[in-house]
Amino acid sequence: MPVEDRSWIKPRDNAPIAASAAPAPSAPSRCDGRTHCSQMRSCEEATYFIQHCPNTQMDGDNDGVPCERQWC
């Protein structure tokens, strides 16, 4: 079977496509009942929770830095 000549085809531009989704906020705007590091998605989020929400259990040594083994 003969090979078809495709030299006339223009190569695609491989520039990255911009994401259309809006970026997620870095910190939640309200306390939602989460209290543990395993429920957080970032150090910033954990810090927000220990500073603004009651009964969090994310700063075992009480140094003000939450989730030191996981996020911060």
UniProtKB/TrEMBL annotation:
Region (Disordered): 1-31
Record's compositionally biased regions (Basic and acidic residues): 1-13
Composition bias type Low complexity, residue spans: 15-29
Residue stretches making up the Excalibur calcium-binding domain: 33-68
UniProt-recorded name of the protein: Excalibur calcium-binding domain-containing protein
Record organism: Thermomonas carbonis
